[in-house]
Structures are given as C-alpha cells and as structure tokens.
Amino acid sequence: xxxxxxxxxxxxxxxxxxxxxxxxxxxxxxxxxxxxxxxxxxxxxxxxxxxxxxxxxxxxxxxxxxxxxxxxxxxxxxxxxxxxxxxxxxxxxxxxxxxxxxxxxxxxxxxxxxxxxxxxxxxxxxxxxxxxxxxx
Length: 136
Fold this sequence. Notes:
The protein is mainly alpha-helical. The chain is built from five helices and no strands.
C-alpha cells in the first residue's frame, strides 16, 4: 500500500533531481576551483541527457514497467544542442576552456533546480503527512 503511494507520487522523481543537482554542483565547483589552471578542461554532467533519461523512466513507470532498458535514447535531433556543444571547444589565453561567467551561470541554474525540487518535495511530504494523520 505505502509502496503504491510512494511510487505514484512525484517523490521518486524529485529524489533523482536532488541527487543529480547535488552531483552536478560538485562538478561545477571543481571547474570554478580550477579557473586559471593552464590546460584545464571543463567538466559537466549533461542536464539534457539526465532529463531525457528521467522522462523515459517516468514513461516506463506510467506504462507499468519497472525500469528502462539499457541504452534507450531519444531520436530528437536538437540543432541548438550541437551549437552549444561546439562552444565548449573555445580556448582562452591560458589554454583552458573555462569561462567564469558560464560556470557561475550554470551553478546558479543548478541551484535553482535543486531548490525547486526540495520545495516541491517538502510540499509532497506535507501532503503525505496530512493524509496519514487524517486531518483535513
């Protein structure tokens, strides 16, 4: 019974978002820490890939499947994604590809996504607590 309530809610999805944003924050912080290190290559976790995999997992859950088949990918041809990826090859005077402004921007967006997931998760827990205590 409680397993059905848990899996039917948004909590499993929000848990994955919080985990992803936490891991991505560590990677982006490492990029900022290495700003100015000659030859340093920017690292990042793909938000597009994460969102596609999460979307596929939600679809699979709604169809009643337990998990995704390995290697399931979307056939979407996103031209803007290719343009964004080509910008990652830009080199600066110190032979790095670290842009301070881009890294701070990505960290800010990541933090907003993390905060949104935590806020929605808190709201979901309050709803569950209200339902369990049978208060209206």
